[in-house]
Specification:
By secondary structure, the chain is α/β, with parallel strands linked by helices.
């Protein structure tokens, strides 16, 4: 009988091993590769204890967002006191915004470093989904890398969720290297999207494993939706611009792409798959979304390097069935490596991320609605935006049927300053801000990116600022900075 056999138990038995006040470090990144059985059992246990009048809450660290059976279930059970560093679950979002769960938003590339250096407390329990467990103490992670290696190393106790559905489909995809810690840390030896520098398995201490729970659940990813016309429009504008930059010699051919989460970013990959003028595409990104599969099937995908393979249930089945052939095109890294500023800059990544709103001076808000209500978080967008060779922020020009303008006089929360943004794209047009002084940037953004219904007011705010702002360098009149946001809160419309 091996140590693996002796540690197997039910999810409920594993949940009973969690103590009030524990810090849970779970696998998972953007709905891929998170534990599914044990968090549900912890939520059920929390509800029972609360009914008995007993206190039970835990802190939850992940790589990024997890599925509803983890983030959502724990939030609804009132089992969480603190969540970090990124989420996208409606139940969790509601609890964050009503103050019942504390939330720390953080750059995804920095989370592991904070834990490894002790700036953030280490998990007391790591709950990690794996696709294989070997008798010698090595494990193969499942569909995400995230911060799993960090949590496995730093946690006092380990619970493994073995996803039996995956078989050997994930074996060979992972590169589990972590950056060295300063001082005198050596550079990561990655010079192209396909370079590897770590082991495909993670070696753990079997003595730290307190439970092994089997599951066969799918990652809870919504079905893939074909891009709408607005998203296609934005995708085509980006590709046209990239081709133009390459034709002028300002942009080398063959740079790797990073694509953020969402339908607009997906549309760019779909447009690439349909463009016969493009050659083979490499990705050096964090989330490998389903839109990469058309590239793969058309023979246009070189290497897709990321920290999560986020696919709908149908695509997950298809990947497992074809994994022997397909997985040679994929590398799943730890997020400290997928989001490494050093590597992003060295590779000259072309970065594409979604903005919640952008202002006429070039600042971007990725996380907060009207300056205070959390949507999801900053994610890894800043890791790429600051260090990429060419950076796009994408958004439809309006939301809520035109009631909200995505281009505003001044963003209600700044995630990316004008120092780190390069190019804005909406379905209205593209604004290349590089090398432009402030007033020229503002006029170009209004002209090319704002919806026609809002251009007059945005121009009026700019002209007012030129006349009345304290300084002309940034012609922002504070009295009018948030008038569109205020009007929306009062009337439900920015117009």
């Amino acid at each position: 009988m091996t140590w693996i056999t002796t540690k197997k138990c039910s999810a409920a038995d594993a949940a009973d091993m969690i103590r009030n006040g524990d810090i849970l470090g779970v696998s998972g990144f953007t709905l891929a590769g998170y534990p599914k059985a044990v968090p549900l059992a912890i939520a059920a246990r929390a509800e029972r204890l609360h009914e008995e009048g007993k206190e039970f809450k835990v802190t939850l660290f992940a790589g990024a967002s997890t599925g509803d059976s983890c983030d959502g279930a724990l939030a609804r059970a009132k089992a969480l006191s603190l969540r970090m560093p990124y989420q996208s679950n409606p139940s969790l979002r509601k609890a964050i915004n009503d103050g019942s769960i504390h939330y720390i938003d953080a750059h995804l590339g920095k989370m592991g470093y904070l834990v490894r250096t002790g700036a953030v407390p280490a998990p007391t329990v790591a709950i990690i989904e794996v696709s294989a467990i070997l008798p010698d103490g090595r494990v193969c992670l499942s569909t995400s890398g995230g911060n799993s290696v960090c949590y496995l190393d730093m946690a006092e106790r380990i619970i493994l969720e073995l996803n039996t559905r995956l078989g050997d489909s994930c074996v060979g995809m992972h590169d589990n290297a972590l950056p060295e810690l300063p001082p005198h840390a050596k550079p990561l030896a990655i010079y192209s999207a396909g370079d590897r520098m770590g082991e495909e398995f993670v070696r753990i201490d079997p003595n730290k494993v307190i439970a092994i729970v089997e599951n066969e659940a799918y990652d809870e990813v919504t079905p893939f939706v074909e891009p709408d016309e607005i998203s296609k429009n934005i995708g085509e504008r980006i590709l046209d611009f990239i081709r133009y930059e390459e034709s002028t010699g300002r942009l080398p051919k063959g740079l790797a792409f990073q694509s953020g989460v969402g339908k607009v970013a997906n549309a760019v990959l779909c447009a690439m798959a349909d463009d016969d003028r493009l050659g083979q595409i490499d990705l050096y990104t964090e989330v490998i979304q389903e839109a990469v599969l058309p590239l793969l099937k058309k023979g246009k995908l070189g290497i897709a390097s990321g920290t999560a393979l986020t696919l709908s249930q149908a695509a997950q089945k298809e990947f497992v069935e074809n994994s022997t052939e397909w997985k040679k095109h994929f590398i799943i890294r730890q997020q400290e490596v997928s989001n490494s500023p050093d590597v992003i800059r060295r590779l000259g990544v072309i970065s594409m991320n979604t903005a919640l709103e952008a202002d006429i001076f070039g600042n971007v808000n990725s996380s907060l609605v009207c300056g205070s209500a959390m949507m999801n978080g900053i994610g890894g967008s800043a890791d790429f935006a600051r260090h990429c060779a060419l950076g796009f922020f994408l958004t439809p020009s309006v939301a809520k049927g035109g009631a909200i303008s995505s281009i505003v006089p001044y963003v209600s929360h700044v995630d990316h300053t004008d120092h780190d943004t390069q190019i804005f794209v909406t379905e209205q047009g593209l604004a290349d801000l590089r090398g432009l002084p402030v007033e020229e940037r503002a006029r170009l953004i209004i002209k090319n990116c704002a919806h026609p219904d809002y251009r007059a007011e945005l121009t009026d705010v700019l002209e007012f600022g030129i006349k009345h702002a304290k300084g002309i360098h940034l012609p922002l009149a504070l009295s009018r900075a948030f008038e569109m946001h205020t009007r929306f809160l009062e009337t439900g419309k920015m117009l």
